[in-house]
Amino acid sequence: MSLLACVIQGMYEPCAASSSIRQALDVFTFSYFVVEILSKTVALGLFGSSGSVLTNHWNTFDIFIIFAEIVDYILIDFGVNIEITHAIKPMRVISRVPALKDLVSVLLDILPMLGNVLILYAFVIHIFAVVGVQLWAGQLLNRCFLGEDIRTKYNVSLSPYFKYISSEKVPFICSPDASSGVRHCIDIPPYRVNGTTCTLTAPNESVDANSCINWNVYYNVCQPGNQNPNVGAINFDNIGYAWITIFQVVTLEGWTDIMHFFMDSYSFWSFVYFILVTIMGSTIIMNVCAVVIATHFSETMERDTVEHHAGSVSVKSLCSTFTSWLRRIFHISRVHLSDSTVERNGPLVQAWIPLQRKLKVIIDSSHFNRFIMAAIFLNVFAMAIEHHGQPEELTAFLQTTNLVFTILFLLEMIVKLLALSWMYFADQDNIFDFAIVIISLWEITSNADSKLSALRAFRVLRFGRLVHFLPYLRRQLLVLRRTVGKSAPLCWLMLFFIFIFSILGMHLFGYKCSFETEFGHVTVDRKNFDSLLWSMLTVFQILTQEDWHLLLYNAMAFTSPWAVTYFVAIIVLGKHVLLNVLVGIVVENYQAMPSENSEQESSAAASVPGSSLPTSLVPRTDPSRTTQDSLCPHNPSRSDVTELSSGEQTAPTDANVDNRSLTLIQKVHRWCKAHEDWSLYVFSPQNRCRVFCQRVNSHSTFDILVLFFILLSCITIAMERPSIKPEHTERQILDVSSYIFTAVFSVEMLVKVIALGFLFGKESYCSSSWNIMDGILVIFSLADVFIEVVTSGKNNVLGILKVFRLLRTLRPLRVIKRTPKLKLAVEALIASVKPMGNIVLICSVFFFFFGIFGVQLFKGTFYHCVGQDLRNITNRNECITARYTWVRKEYNFDNLLQALISLFVMYSKDGWVSIMYNGLDAVGVDQQPVKNYNKWVLLYFISFMIMSFFLLDMFIGVMVETFHQCQQKQRQGDEELEGEELQEQHTEPEEIPYYTHYSPIRRDIHTLCTSKALDLFITFAIIASVLVMAAEHHNQPEYVQRLTEYSQYVFTLILIIEVLLKLVAFGVIRFLKNRWNLMDVIIVLTSIVSIVFGAMKMSQAFPINPNILRVFRVLRLTQVLKANTIRVLLKTVIKTVLQVGNISLLFMFFFFIFAALGVELFGKIECSLDYPCKGLDRHANFSHFGMALLTLYKVCTGDNWSGILKDTLRDCRPDDSECSSYLQWVAPIYLSSFVIMAQFVLINLVVAAIMQALEDSKENKPTNNGLPLEEENLPAT
């Protein structure tokens, strides 16, 4: 009946008359549940006894739903419909499904901690929202208006303020002349008519209708308008909209557009505020929320596993039961069949049994398995080379190979069936192979060119057999398998969550997201709530946070601003709670599985080697060594050369004969052995030049000087930009400095090689991997100089080798060796390469599978016609006949490489919705797309996105495990020192309280300052101050202005009195020893400064409004918070900020290298009205180093980085001589490697640091390190 109630809710159609069948079923289910609860009440009693109805919380919830339905029926008669009641009716399913019931119970157990997390989350958002209101209230209203009445004077139809012809979605927000914003009215682009740029000015008299006049030049007055961007949804005009804006920024979706608005209207340096919001709000606070939910869920799940395990039924148990039944049936049938066969055909059975044994030996042999694996590899390779527009010969060849491989796999299946009989189906891999063979036979016999051929891509998954040859990969796959198995209830709960919010979305926004096109047709937005299918798809899109802000803008425009609560609930409950539970499951599985090191040790202990070293190698080296050993004692004080010569002189005649019998190669080998300690076989250990180089290399000034030149080299690399002309002095300085740095680093390498030796020796130059990296960079620099000299002023074939110039950007790698903290962080990162490589390999297999699958489904279908009126265009020929352009979409599946790029974009959760809709609209080869043509392809895209959640969380699990191991190794060396310090602290004698000799008045003041009453009063005062600051808004009345001004005086006075009382109570020195007291002094000083500047009317003289200094009062709340859980969270945040120093160095290091490389690669990409870009613009580009850093930070957050990739993949224009053709294959490598490093590795390293900090905060509650979150009412004595 609960499922029937869900079906009834799913039958709802917005804006349609209610069906009588649906109403009847609704009444029937309501009556059933009423009878059910009445029966339970009669049988068990309502309350009082231990087993009564109300003692069970699920029964109480059922009663609540019934009363809600009764209220709903009553209100419907009065014409009132409460939409939320339709969403809670299907929740009865939770109490009826044991797995869902257990999971929800665990989530309810962590609800108190979750509430504290959300309080901290809201606390951070509120602080930044108040700052935003103080800084930018009304800033986004600025528009460029006409300076004079041009419309009346020249009788032309113009907008009162400038806006783009296309729409107002991207408004032109200006900065007044007195402000320091980036965009002014003078920057308005010229007026265009039919693609022609107008340059004429209006005459004094009437205007000719055919004249092309630049009317935009008359929009020269920047003043506030009446409309904020994005249909009024984004602004800081009041605290409500500020909350919405900050929440969107924290979700990292569309945040750069908001930042650009304020950079245009207020100041270029506004990006500092938004970067702080994203770092503090998204990178730290949101990850703290994720870690807290994941860890507490794991702990609660472990505690409740035994209690809730009984009676639970899972899909896995059902499948295992079904498999066991099948095995029993196969075994019984096999016994009966064998008995009957023996009775009837005795001689035949006697001949068959040896043959079956031979077949079993064959299939168990390694040669057979290797042959099948080679066939699978060749079959996958044949599918991988298939692409759109391939020659007919290749098509015929691939069809033949498909037939051959199908027959081969059919023979394999037959041989295994003959050898194993019914036991063939006892192995899941064999069942999978059996299904693939049947599908392949069906495809061949049906002889139909349909989408069924795409199922051949499942052959790629047979690569799973390679796990037996890769033991390190086996552990990662076992973790993934266990994660998928344990997360089955979570997946069902997630599906139920999506269903409930889909029902609610249909009731709230059904048929309300539509707009009118330029041809007068009403078009429904692709992302809507008009049916159950599209509503569930939209909710799933919101969970991935892809373009969710566009949905929010439309919902707020068509309904009310309160629509934001629906989207916030989905993101907070779905993304931040349920999906973070999956992170906890992954981390728990990694901790439960044995580590790779333990596996290696166990495997090493299990294997018993026959011999330690090959004996054949010993005689080759022993004679020379014994000869030298016998000679060394006779001449211990001489050099090696002297020893060798004296040994040869005193050697017997037989040895001389042996020397004469040696070949030239053997003599050279012996000579080299004798001179191993010579540097480059030229400089002996006593050589003066080598001794001098050793002294230089060991001197501390040498390292400082080299580091100085490295830093200078980094500065010159940051100064590089394509806009510098060759004849400019700056270009000449940079070129000369590059030659100088190359020479300096070459000399450094030469000195180290002479001093240490090149290859041989324990401390030789090449014995250190860091020196090898330095040497490679020097060699590349010398090659760059050589190529530049050879190709200077010439157009020869060596000009293509100028790409070596890009390797200059790798010079900052030399900083790693000379920065201990950075070196430690890089070494820890390198330690995670091996397990991370296994995850990448697993991802590559899935990418390969979905890529081949996508090529089979969509090759040649991602084309569309570009033109004005496309209503009558159905195919490519009609498009070309209409003189339109037939264009391929940037992300497509025409070949495997393009498919992998598209899948990686989807994997990063940026731009996946557009790719999905392109596949949804694809009709066929050379066919114009039709909206929602094939809905079944949703299975392909949604399954890939679901799998991507698991694989992304695997990255988190690997980083958490690796970071934890590194932390454990680091702590082993510090435990002894910390133990000694603790002993010293415990042995300190107790001192007499410092306030013993206070006077009565000072003692009373001290008692007041250490009492909880003062803390409560200050807490109340600060909360009131925050509320008053939150009440400020744009165009506020005069009384609100006076209220905030007077309240500021009062609250500042209260804080001053508190500080003075504490100074009297504790004394100046003891007062300043406490960090919180120092913060109180800073808060008081900033409040006084804010009042002084406000009284002197000096706010306009500063680039930043001094009133934001008042916001520091909010930080005072953290001291008086008494909830231990919130204190643990705050301590976790503080420890995380302190621990991410090395991670920040890593971020800065990689950003520097990629920014310098991006300037070299993409600095000349042009974006204009005639050649528009989809991701790059004047705020995001690679024109110089600073802008490249800002652009890479945008890519790091995942905000429209797919649009930047589209711009870098564009074809070069015929008239663009500076465009490099190699960018089309360099750009995906560059951006994908940066996205992997930034989004999947370094960000997850922050998650690992937060998890470790949370663990430390729980273990070290009673510490006395002077941290601000300790339970201490008075300063340290």
TrEMBL record:
The keyword Transmembrane applies. It is a multi-pass membrane protein. It is found in: Membrane. Residues 598-655, 1258-1277 are annotated as: Disordered. GO terms for molecular function: low voltage-gated calcium channel activity; metal ion binding; voltage-gated sodium channel activity. Residues 598-607 have a biased composition (Low complexity). One of its GO terms (biological process) is membrane depolarization during action potential. Ca(2+) binds at residue 910. InterPro entries: Ion_trans_dom, VDCCAlpha1, VGCC_Ca_Na, Volt_channel_dom_sf. The keyword 4Fe-4S does not apply. Residues 18-303, 366-594, 699-970, 1012-1259 form the Ion transport domain. Keywords: Calcium, Calcium channel, Calcium transport, Glycoprotein, Ion channel, Ion transport, Membrane, Metal-binding, Repeat, Transmembrane, Transmembrane helix, Transport, Voltage-gated channel. GO terms for cellular component: neuron projection; voltage-gated calcium channel complex; voltage-gated sodium channel complex. It comes from the Eukaryota. It holds the Pfam family Ion_trans. Gene3D superfamilies: 1.10.287.70, Voltage-gated potassium channels. Chain C. Residues 624-655 have a biased composition (Polar residues). The chain crosses the membrane at residues 63-82, 103-136, 271-294, 367-385, 405-425, 490-509, 563-587, 700-719, 739-760, 772-791, 839-858, 937-960, 1013-1031, 1046-1069, 1076-1096, 1142-1162, 1229-1251. Belongs to the calcium channel alpha-1 subunit (TC 1.A.1.11) family. This is Ion transport domain-containing protein.
